[in-house]
């Protein structure tokens, strides 16, 4: 009998925060996709609820605390031999400005119009953003 090889996969949560028609993106550094723009987010921890992970990641990275998080979409992608399921939430009722709370991972936060997004968006997050703009709930990439 052949030994079964299990493929590892990861679950990521990301938060789309819009204000005045603009989307908040951070310039990634010292992490996958360094030098590209991405949504606030990170990995789901063991036994953590998805919405709690999204709330935690947004707070850890930006200092912002959303009143409400709403599921937007799911993307299924592979990158660098890793398989990711990425879940995106929309944050509403967020006041204040994003801070650089994890300076080793993000160098700046910036607001972008969805019609004038930067070209260098972290590919898994680009799939989320494209799906958000197209109002798609699920996207393969």
UniProtKB/TrEMBL annotation:
GO terms for cellular component: cytosol. Keywords: Hydrolase. Coiled coil: none annotated. One of its GO terms (molecular function) is 8-oxo-7,8-dihydrodeoxyguanosine triphosphate pyrophosphatase activity. GO terms for biological process: dGTP catabolic process. Residues 8-135 form the Nudix hydrolase domain. Transmembrane segments: none annotated. InterPro entries: Nudix_hydrolase, NUDIX_hydrolase-like_dom_sf, NUDIX_hydrolase_CS, NUDIX_hydrolase_dom. Belongs to the Nudix hydrolase family. This is DNA mismatch repair protein MutT. The lineage of its organism: Bacteria, Candidatus Uhriibacteriota.
């Amino acid at each position: 009998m052949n030994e079964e090889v299990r493929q590892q996969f990861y679950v990521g949560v990301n938060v789309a925060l819009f204000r005045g028609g603009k989307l908040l993106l951070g310039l990634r550094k010292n992490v996958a996709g360094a030098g590209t723009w991405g949504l606030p987010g990170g990995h789901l921890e063991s036994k953590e609820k998805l919405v709690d992970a999204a709330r935690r990641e947004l707070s850890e990275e930006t200092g912002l605390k959303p009143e409400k998080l709403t599921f937007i979409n799911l993307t299924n992608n592979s990158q660098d031999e890793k398989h990711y399921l990425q879940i995106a939430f929309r944050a509403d009722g967020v006041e204040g400005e994003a801070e650089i709370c994890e300076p080793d991972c993000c160098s700046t936060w910036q607001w972008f119009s969805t019609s004038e997004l930067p070209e260098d968006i972290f590919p898994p997050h680009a799939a989320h953003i494209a799906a958000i703009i197209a109002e798609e709930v699920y996207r393969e990439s």
